Amino acid sequence: MALKKIPLLQSLQSLLGALFASLPFSATQMTLSSVLFAAIGFYFSFQHQPLLSLLFFVIAGAVDAIDGAVARAKKQVTAQGAFIDGMTDRLVEFLFVLSFLFYPLPSFMLP
Question: What Å distances lie between residue 25 and 12, 61, 78, 104, CA to CA?
Fold first, then answer.
C-alpha cells in the first residue's frame, strides 16, 4: 500500500497498464491468472524445485501488480473487481507461505 505513493512506481505501473491493456485479456482474467501462476509455483515447491517455484511466484506477483493498472487503462474499475483482486491476493500469499512447509528446517535448534 505504501508503494502506491511513490511517483516513479505510479508512472511505471501506468505505463505497464497501458501496454498490457492492448492484450485481449480483462483485468479480472489477469487477476485470476495470478492464482494460476501461484498454484504452479506451489506445485514446484511440492516437487522440491525452489527456483521454478520462486519464478512462478514472482510472475504471480508481477501480474497482480499490473492488473489494477490494466483495469484503470481499460476503464473497467469496479468494486467487484477490487474485491476479487483482494481475495486473490490473500490466496496467493497463502500458497506462498504454505509452500515453505515443503522445505526442511535447519539441522540445529535455537535455544
Answer: 20, 17, 16, 39
In the chain, the domains with their CATH numbers are 13-101 (1.20.120.1760)
Which runs of consecutive H residues, i.e. helices, occur in 47-78? 50-73
From first to last of the 111 residues of the chain, give the pLDDT tens digit. Answer: 455 677 777 777 778 777 778 888 888 899 999 999 999 999 999 998 999 999 999 999 999 888 888 888 888 888 998 999 999 999 999 999 999 888 776 766 666
Q: 53: which 3 cell numbers? A: 517455484
- Rounded to two decimals, what is the model's pTM? 0.81
C-alpha cell, 80: 467487484
66 CB contacts (<8 Å, ≥6 apart)?
A: 13, 16, 17, 20, 30
Contact 52, 107 (CB under 8 A): no
Structure letter (DSSP) for residue 43 = H
Q: Which three cell numbers stand for residue 37?
A: 501462476
